[in-house]
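Sample log: PIG-L family deacetylase.
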Amino acid sequence: DADRHQDHLAVYQASMVACRTIPQILGYETPSTWLSFMPQVFESVKEEYFTVKLAALKKHKS
């Protein structure tokens, strides 16, 4: 329940309801969901990568 992204929480809750008859549900945590997660290393993004990423995002429809 530490994941703060509302879509992730909604999917988790819906999954738990859908799987309520299953006796054991296994999951996992990722470092970014820990409340104590504090990144210490940052990587500079090259402009050409950023341009490609923005073009890809513009093709995505919500």
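Observation: The chain has a mean pLDDT of 85.
Observation: The helical segments are 6-18, 47-59.
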